Automatic annotation (TrEMBL):
Domain Guanylate cyclase: 244-379
Transmembrane parts of this sequence: 40-58, 64-81, 102-132, 138-155, 167-187
Protein name in the entry: Adenylate cyclase
UniProt entry tagged with the keyword Cytoplasm: no
Highest taxon of the lineage: Bacteria
Segments of this protein annotated with the region Disordered: 1-29
PANTHER family on file: ADENYLATE CYCLASE, TERMINAL-DIFFERENTIATION SPECIFIC-RELATED (PTHR43081), BLL7624 PROTEIN (PTHR43081:SF18)
One GO MF term: adenylate cyclase activity
GO terms under biological process: cAMP biosynthetic process; intracellular signal transduction
Alphabetized UniProt keyword annotations: Membrane, Transmembrane, Transmembrane helix
Keyword Transmembrane set for record: yes
Length: 480
């Protein structure tokens, strides 16, 4: 008695809203059969059956009044669902379908259970209930329709004969078949359109993900992750947090830039930044920016493991960077770069202002505060290959990091001199049990980090060392 086509526009809109931002050049329009059209079709079919039944004597004369009701009800239902308080009612389609089941049951009861017309109405109602509401709506519809049939049957009584004339039966079957075929066609069209919409949404989602990954290259991974997971809003806001701040630059880079061609210098710098960025991300650092040959990294935002662990991760990263720099320097020397490049680093820990700074249409996620200035100052005072840290950083890592006292410095913004310390190495790596070893002479360089060597690599390295030792012994033997 109403449209059997499921209205998939809401599902399609929800799917589009759930996808990530992306291009929407082509939109798929799903062609549903509106409830109004379906209801007009089904009630018109019922009206035709009533007229035929009355003319052939299968129904009583007063049943002609049901024709007017059948033709008016679709318009009344449309008005109720679009222009009254019912338009905002959840699951309004299912509620209107229950009304149709009650009306259909009343019609069957009024005609006294004449077989084929009654079966036609039941088929249309059950077909609608199954497609629109599934098994649950079908069961509800069966119960309500049965109750309505029994109620009206008690009032009007059963028909003298349950058989209907041939023309009435044929029209009942024909109109029901037309209704089912038309609504099934629309349901098929919707299914095809929905599959196409899902395919398009998936394609747009993939494009959006690819675009977001490209944009992520311009943001620190932690910041990008917090934005795209909804943990952080993209707006001008800041907060005070205790962070560990790291600065580094390359000693001798200015002199090297005067000797090298810009293309070669760019390649060297990108190689350096790529290696250091991998180290920083491995320890969970938020890369703030690259400026010239300088790197700024901080720990403690957007994620933090606590001030002590953040400071330790920052110092551990600096030690790893220093070791990694030795490996890169050896590679650069093999490429003909004779200028020895050394990294110098500074670390401070304290409260800073962190968040989005700038304008509404162009902002930068960074930190400001006197601790940032202190870290930058420590980096500029550090000797090549050295890591200078503030007293607060030292107090947080001293149980795991060996440091030496370097006296005090005066820094703008601090009321009194600041004690500073130089990082020596991990305490666990001091003495015979240290994992990192280095030895360098003209014509020879060795950097060994035993913690990072696999068993397969260990055998290959031992073979290479045995071969090198044998050659040195052979060439150094006066008898040869």
């Amino acid at each position: 008695m109403m449209s059997a086509s499921a209205d998939l526009r809401n599902a399609s809109d929800s799917a589009e809203r759930s996808q990530m931002p992306g291009p929407r050049d082509n939109t798929v329009a799903i062609p549903p059969m509106p409830d109004y059209n379906g209801r007009v079709l089904s009630y018109t079919a019922t009206a035709i059956v009533i007229v035929a039944g009355v003319l052939q004597g299968a129904f009583q004369q007063w049943h002609m009044w049901l024709v007017a009701g059948a033709l008016l009800w679709p318009h009344i239902a449309y008005f109720l669902t679009r222009h009254t308080f019912l338009k905002n009612t959840p699951r309004i389609r299912q509620k209107m379908l229950t009304a149709d089941c009650i009306i259909g049951g009343g019609f069957i009861g009024c005609i006294g259970l004449v077989a084929i017309p009654s079966a036609s109405v039941v088929l249309m109602l059950m077909f609608s209930a199954l497609i629109i509401g599934g098994i649950r709506q079908w069961l509800i519809g069966c119960v309500l329709m049965t109750a309505s049939i029994l109620g009206f049957l008690a009032l009007s009584g059963s028909a003298p004969s349950y058989q209907s004339p041939l023309l009435t039966s044929m029209l009942s079957i024909l109109t029901t078949g037309v209704y089912i075929c038309v609504t099934a066609f629309y349901a098929h069209q919707q299914a095809r359109a929905l599959m196409l919409a899902k395919s398009q949404i998936q394609s747009q989602r993939e494009q959006s993900i690819a675009l977001s990954h490209k944009l992520s290259k311009y943001l620190s991974p932690q910041v990008w992750q917090s934005i795209f997971t909804g943990e952080r809003d993209v707006r001008l806001e800041t907060q005070r947090k205790k962070l560990a701040i790291f600065f580094s630059d390359i000693k001798g880079f200015t002199e090297l830039s005067e000797e090298m061609e810009p293309e070669a210098l760019t390649e060297l710098l990108n190689h350096y930044f790529n290696g250091m960025a991998e180290v920083a991300l491995r320890y969970g650092g938020t890369i703030d920016k690259f400026v010239g040959d300088s790197i700024m990294v901080f720990f403690g935002d957007p994620t933090s493991r606590g001030p002590r662990e953040d400071a330790f991760a920052c110092v551990s990263m600096a030690i790893d960077m220093r070791n990694h720099m030795k490996i890169m320097r050896q590679k650069w020397q093999s490429q003909g770069i004779k200028t020895p490049l050394e990294i110098r680093m500074g670390i401070s820990t304290g409260y800073t202002t962190v968040g989005n700074f700038g304008a509404e249409n162009r902002m930068d996620y960074t930190i400001i505060g006197k601790e940032v200035n202190l870290a930058s100052r420590l980096e500029s005072l550090a000797d090549p290959g050295a890591i200078l840290i503030s007293y607060e950083t030292f107090s947080l890592v001293k149980d795991r990091i060996m440091c030496r006292d370097k006296g005090e410095i005066t820094v703008k913004g601090f009321g009194r001199p600041i004690p500073i310390y130089e990082v020596v190495d991990f305490r666990r790596d001091m003495g015979p049990n240290r994992s990192f070893m280095e030895h360098e002479h003209k014509g020879f360089a060795m950097y060994l980090d035993s913690d990072k060597i696999t068993e397969k690599e260990r055998k290959s390295i031992l073979a290479a060392l045995d071969d090198a030792a044998e050659r040195l012994r052979h060439e150094g033997d006066p008898g040869n």
